[in-house]
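Thread: Modeling a multi-component assembly for a lab meeting

Hi all, long-time lurker, first post. My supervisor asked me to bring a structural picture of a complex we are working on to next week's group meeting, and I have zero experience with this. I have the sequence lines for every component (223 residues in total). Could someone generate the structure of the whole assembly? Inputs are pasted exactly as I received them:
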Amino acid sequence: KAGVTQTPRYLIKTRGQQVTLSCSPISGHRSVSWYQQTPGQGLQFLFEYFSETQRNKGNFPGRFSGRQFSNSRSEMNVSTLELGDSALYLCASSLAGGDAAQYFGPGTRLLVL
Amino acid sequence: TQLLEQSPQFLSIQEGENLTVYCNSSSVFSSLQWYRQEPGEGPVLLVTVVTGGEVKKLKRLTFQFGDARKDSSLHITAAQPGDTGLYLCAGELGNNRLAFGKGNQVVVIP
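Re: Modeling a multi-component assembly
Sure thing. I ran the full set together rather than chain by chain. Output:
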């Protein structure tokens, strides 16, 4: 069974731009969660989607948004990028939900200049 | 404020030595997960502990959940270079959410 895939793997943007990241979960997994990982803060929860509905949202500004499609694929969008948005963005899928065993993708490394 | 505190943040040891890292909280969790993350990769689930006092073994790795379900430890016996990585603990918050610690960076020197 194929693992979680994320595209692109690396991205360089400038302040003020927007970015869209994509995640394809493991086949059959309906829950997709997004995390931001930085050396200073560790893994911070962004949001979780299940069957196209956002079930949970972390403490991030409204510039961070996401959605999930009927095939469970998910995208997250960050608008008006700031330098502090530079991070590794990880997507994880799960059979049961955002608090069950998570299967992570390799992440998208975003650098904002 | 970090819900889960992991210590030590960084640990470097020689191949063949034993090590223990810790994951502590003042909150009670219904379960706790341990992951290992290698450079350039996402975290990979190692184990889930559910019952207070539970001990689980995965080859040379021993995981223990505290009796009060507030803390956990990971012990590695005879560490090998392949054990190098960032070890993350994650507590189940309910409502389909996990809280992650910042991790224990372990480096095993050949």
